[in-house]
Design brief:
single chain; about 230 residues; alpha/beta; 5-stranded parallel sheet; 4-stranded antiparallel sheet; 8 helices; about 40% helix; elongated
């Protein structure tokens, strides 16, 4: 068994061939035709991967991502017919791990699904470091938890992954392309702007005391300095 996949799209002409292709490759597959139906099926089916269209009736793919929130162990791939970077960035902001634009090759979607499953499996391995602290900021990778002065900070999955990568490798400068590859695990054709957006949101959520924690290295990328400790 490859894993469990929930396919969500309001077009039966897309759901049926995808269901057939994934089952042929050894996946256990369930499907839904809108976000609300998918949301109802997630607790009982407990998928490893959610493949969802963005434009759907009742509840669209972006709202579905927001409703799911930071569900541990669930990877999300969005399908979109729009050649619009806004939809792509919003999807990633709301917790999606990857996206693919219609029309697409089923073989590419299968490959991306397998790649995402491998990444999720690696992430599920407990981190040897129980926590990483900088003054009153504490990051607990195994629990995907961040606190500032004892107060929980709510981060999206990608914001959390970015913070853990940077804080676990203090003084190392990461280029935007490296961050895309290591955090998103894909060549994001929308460009590196999504990294800048996530960094800006991280700084805002960490508050005034830590707004300079993630440093911009102009012309290169970002880092967290050990001088902060």
């Amino acid at each position: 068994m490859q894993g469990k996949v929930l396919i969500v799209d309001d077009e039966k002409s897309i759901v049926d061939p995808l269901t057939y292709a994934f089952r042929r490759e050894g996946f256990i597959v369930e499907n839904a035709f809108n976000g609300k139906e998918a949301l109802d099926k997630i607790p009982s089916f407990n998928p490893d991967i959610l493949i969802s269209d963005i434009m759907m009736p009742v509840m669209n793919g972006l709202d579905l991502c927001k409703q799911i929130g930071n569900k541990e162990g669930l990877g999300i791939i969005l399908l979109t017919a729009k050649d619009d970077i806004i939809d792509r960035v919003l999807g990633l902001e709301f917790g999606a791990d990857d996206y693919i634009t219609k029309p697409f090759d089923i073989r590419e979607l299968l490959a991306r699904t397998r790649s995402l499953l491998r990444r999720l499996k690696k992430q599920s391995t407990p981190d040897e470091k129980k926590s990483i602290s900088i003054n009153k900021l504490q990051v607990i990778p195994a629990q995907r938890k961040v606190t500032v002065d004892g107060t929980n900070i709510e981060l999206t999955p990608k914001e959390f992954d970015l913070l853990v990568l940077l804080i676990s490798n203090m003084d190392r400068i990461f280029s935007r392309d490296e961050l895309l590859d290591l955090v998103w695990g894909m060549e994001y054709i929308g460009g590196t702007r999504t990294v800048d957006i996530h960094i800006q949101r991280l700084r805002k959520k960490l508050g005034n005391s830590y707004q300079h924690l993630i440093q911009t290295v102009f012309g290169v990328g970002y880092k967290i300095s050990s001088e902060n400790k």
